[in-house]
Specification:
This protein is α+β, with helices and mostly antiparallel strands. 46% of the residues lie in helices and 24% in strands. The chain has 2 domains: 134 residues, Immunoglobulin-like (Sandwich), CATH 2.60.40; 89 residues. The chain has a 9-stranded antiparallel β-sheet.
Length: 250
C-alpha cells in the first residue's frame, strides 16, 4: 500500500518518477510473490563489503535471497548501491541447490560454491533489485524464466526512463552547486550516465532487455555516486546530516 498526499496523475516530473518507481516496484513484487506472500525467514546472509547483507526467505520448493545495501546517511542520500565482484555467505542452503541471479529482466546462473558456513554466491556486478533464486527444481526455474521473459521489456524500459529522469534532475542541481571539487566533476559523471543510456537504447532496440537493464542501472549508479559525493562533502563540517534542512536530501 502506497499513500500519497498528491494525485499520481499530475503532470510534474516528480510525480512521473513516483509513478514509474511504483510500477517497477509492483513488477518486482509480482516476480517474488511466492516468497513475499508465503515465505518464511530462514537466515541472514553476510556480505563481503560493509553495509551489504541479505535475508533468505524459504518456501516448500525454493529459497530466495533479498540483498540489501545500507550505509550511514542512506536515509538522506543513498550510497551507490552497486559494485563489482560482491559476494554473500548464505547459511543453511542445501548442497544440491543452484543459485541464479533473478531480476525482472533476466534469470541467469550465479557463481556459487560451498564454503565453511554455507554457500557463497558472487555477483560479477551487484545492484539492488537483483534477487538470488536458490532452487534445484526445474519446474520452478522454468516458470520464473518464462515470467522474466514476459515482463522484461516493460521492466527494462522503466529502468531506462527512471535513469533518464534521475539524469535530468541531477543535472539541474549540478548547475546550481558552487564550484567545489566534487561539483566541478559533475560533467564526468553526467557523461558516463549519458553513455550508458545510449548503450541502453541500442540494446532496447535490439530486444536485449538484460543488457539494456544493466546499462540503465550503471547510468543510475554513476549519478548516485555523484550525489553521494556532493552530500558527503556538504555534511563533512556539520557533524550531523540533520543539522540543516539543506542536507537531508540531495
Amino acid at each position: 500500500l502506497f499513500q500519497s498526499q498528491s494525485p499520481l496523475d499530475a503532470g510534474d516530473p516528480q510525480t512521473g518518477r513516483r509513478v514509474m518507481t511504483l510500477e517497477l516496484l509492483n513488477i518486482e513484487l509480482q516476480l517474488i510473490e511466492p516468497w513475499a506472500a508465503a515465505g518464511t525467514f530462514q537466515a541472514a546472509a553476510e556480505g563481503s563489503r560493509p553495509g551489504i547483507a541479505g535475508a533468505i526467505l524459504r518456501t516448500d520448493r525454493a529459497r530466495l535471497l533479498l540483498p540489501t545495501w545500507v550505509s550511514p546517511g542512506s536515509q538522506c542520500v543513498p550510497d551507490q548501491a552497486g559494485a563489482a565482484d560482491v559476494s554473500l555467505l548464505l547459511p543453511g542452503v542445501p548442497e544440491s541447490t543452484t543459485a541464479y541471479e533473478m531480476t525482472p529482466s533476466r534469470l541467469v546462473p550465479l557463481r556459487h560454491k560451498r564454503v565453511t558456513g554455507g554457500m557463497r554466491v558472487t555477483f560479477d556486478e551487484f545492484a539492488l533489485g537483483s534477487f538470488v533464486l536458490l532452487s534445484q527444481d526445474p519446474l520452478i526455474i522454468n516458470r520464473l524464466s518464462q515470467r522474466t521473459t514476459r515482463i522484461a521489456p516493460r521492466a527494462a524500459q522503466l529502468e531506462r526512463q527512471l535513469a533518464e529522469a534521475k539524469l535530468q534532475a541531477v543535472a539541474r542541481v549540478a548547475r546550481r552547486l558552487p564550484p567545489r571539487s566534487t561539483a566541478a566533476r559533475s560533467a564526468e559523471f553526467l557523461a558516463a550516465a549519458r553513455k550508458d543510456l545510449q548503450l541502453c537504447d541500442g540494446y532496447l532496440a535490439a530486444g536485449n532487455y538484460s543488457a539494456a537493464s544493466t546499462h540503465a542501472r550503471r547510468a543510475a549508479r554513476s549519478l548516485r555516486v555523484f550525489q553521494r559525493a556532493c552530500w558527503d562533502e556538504a555534511v563533512a563540517a556539520l557533524g550531523s546530516p540533520v543539522a540543516t534542512p539543506g542536507t537531508t536530501s540531495f
